[in-house]
Amino acid sequence: QGSGLSWSAATRLVERNLQPVGAGFAWRTDPRLRFVSPLYLSEPQILAYMERIQAPALLICGDTGYLVKRAYMQDRYARLAELTVKIVPGGHHPHLEDPEPCARLLRPFFAIAESKPATVAAAILP
Q1: Is the pLDDT of residue 66 over 50?
Q2: Which SS3 state, helix, strand or coil, does residue 73 take?
Q3: Is the residue at 100 inside a domain?
Q4: Which pairing describes strands 57-62 and 83-88: parallel, antiparallel, or unpaired?
Q5: Is 41 a residue whose pLDDT tops 70?
Q6: Considering its fold, how many domains does the chain have in total?
Q7: Is residue 9 one of the residues assigned to a domain?
Q8: What is the pLDDT of residue 122?
């Protein structure tokens, strides 16, 4: 229990990532999670990218997760024009720990997003 991950959340992780191999099992994850990034952005570059995001965004954080505690994240949040931040009980994986609070937040967010006409930023058009 050192990670703070509940038994049910750990069960969901194991069910999702355990893969039958022959007579046993293997742990599978996205190999890209282990790659060293060929591109590292500075904080000013990150903020500049974030300022250009115009789409509605919803960030759901667990109240004991590491993002909530990072002071620099507040500056990042402020750069998004249409960001809504919601805090739910949980850690780094609140959607695994208790999916229902996340689902309650996502349903209306997607309903609103679907009702808006799709737009494409002029900056990404040829």
Answers
A1: yes
A2: helix
A3: yes
A4: parallel
A5: yes
A6: 1
A7: no
A8: 44
The two tokens of residue 101 are: 């609070």
Query: Would the pTM count as exceeding 0.85?
Result: no
Angle of CA points 57, 44, 50, to nearest 5°? 15
Q: Is residue 98 part of a domain?
A: yes
CA–CA gap between residue 93 and residue 4 (Å, rounded): 10
What is the CATH number for 101?
A: 3.40.50.1820
Specify the higher pLDDT residue, 10 or 102: 102
Least confident of 35-39, 44-48, 70-74: 35-39
DSSP 8-state class, residue 19? E
User: Distances in Å between the alpha carbon of 25 and those of 17, 18, 22?
Assistant: 10, 6, 7
The Cα-based distances of 103 to 8, 109, 125 in angstroms read: 17, 10, 33
Residue 54's alpha-carbon distances to 4, 33, 79, 120, in angstroms, are 35, 27, 10, 10
Structural domain of 97: 41-116
